[in-house]
């Protein structure tokens, strides 16, 4: 389950898994508590939308303040391209071409934007390092989670036994219908054929959870959001359910200074 908090009307969720770690900031936004008008109502945190940039800036400031990072929190993110490139960063900035970020820099928040794809946040307690991952179906079949953990292992000495991982809110397995060209790239355990349609439902949460387990992260150190961007569209943005005319959430993680 998740702990739901609100500050200054900004609604967000903190994964229960991370609450014991007082040196960590980790949160997932919802769509409530911002200034954006429809169809981005209201806490749109996505830069690459047609929402007014001033609205997004104010929404981000409100979100960062609400989660305890401060309105002008040092923040690193990237223009995501549904690929498998990983950025190790020690400074804030808006980068390009990366779908995962890793850091061991205290005082720096890293994050990914989502509106159906899977956000994954990882904390390596032993080596004080974090990761934020954006895994759509391409990133999932490309094993971005595994590649990110391997990068953390190489750079920080990360091992699965000391990692805590949160698989965030995304499209659910009963809403993500794909054609055979996509379905064939997923193992049978993560897809279910839709009768007489040629399509299949794919479970992105389960597929990414398997990567975490295979790296050696204990089951009790993995939390999966019970929410869906489609089924809970009143609380979360969904690119598919809203036909592309919608905002974006942020999933962020960082070590306190």
From TrEMBL:
Record-linked InterPro entries: Cu_polyphenol_OxRdtase, Cu_polyphenol_OxRdtase_sf, Cytotoxic_necrot_fac-like_cat
PANTHER family xref list: PURINE NUCLEOSIDE PHOSPHORYLASE LACC1, UNCHARACTERIZED PROTEIN YFIH
Enzymatic reactions: adenosine + phosphate = alpha-D-ribose 1-phosphate + adenine; S-methyl-5'-thioadenosine + phosphate = 5-(methylsulfanyl)-alpha-D-ribose 1-phosphate + adenine; adenosine + H2O + H(+) = inosine + NH4(+); inosine + phosphate = alpha-D-ribose 1-phosphate + hypoxanthine
Keywords: Hydrolase, Metal-binding, Transferase, Zinc
Record-stated family: Belongs to the purine nucleoside phosphorylase YfiH/LACC1 family.
Gene3D superfamilies according to UniProt: CNF1/YfiH-like putative cysteine hydrolases
The protein, known as: Purine nucleoside phosphorylase
Keyword Transport part of the UniProt annotation: no
A molecular function GO annotation: copper ion binding
CDD domains (alphabetical): YfiH
Pfam families to which the protein is assigned, alphabetical: Cu-oxidase_4 (PF02578)
């Amino acid at each position: 389950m998740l702990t739901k908090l609100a500050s200054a009307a900004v609604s967000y969720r903190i994964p229960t898994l991370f609450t014991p770690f007082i040196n960590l900031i980790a949160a997932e936004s919802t769509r409530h508590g911002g200034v954006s008008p429809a169809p981005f109502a209201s806490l749109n945190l996505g830069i690459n939308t047609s929402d007014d940039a001033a609205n997004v800036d104010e929404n981000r400031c409100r979100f960062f303040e609400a989660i305890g990072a401060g309105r002008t929190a040092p923040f690193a993110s990237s223009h995501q391209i549904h690929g498998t490139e990983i950025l190790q960063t020690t400074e804030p900035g808006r980068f390009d071409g990366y779908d995962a970020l890793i850091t061991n820099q205290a005082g720096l928040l890293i994050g990914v934007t989502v509106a159906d794809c899977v956000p994954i946040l990882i904390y390596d307690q032993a080596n004080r390092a974090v990761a934020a991952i954006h895994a759509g179906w391409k990133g999932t079949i490309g094993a971005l989670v595994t590649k990110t953990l391997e990068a953390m292992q190489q750079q920080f000495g990360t091992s699965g036994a000391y990692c805590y991982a949160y698989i965030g809110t995304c499209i659910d397995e009963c809403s993500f219908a794909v054609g055979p060209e996509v379905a064939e790239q997923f193992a049978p355990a993560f897809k279910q054929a839709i009768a007489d349609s040629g399509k299949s439902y794919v479970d992105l949460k389960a597929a990414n959870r398997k990567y975490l387990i295979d790296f050696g992260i204990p089951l009790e150190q993995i939390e999966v959001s019970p929410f869906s961007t489609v089924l809970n569209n009143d609380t979360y943005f969904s690119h598919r359910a809203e036909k592309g005319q919608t905002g974006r959430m942020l999933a962020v993680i960082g070590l306190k200074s």
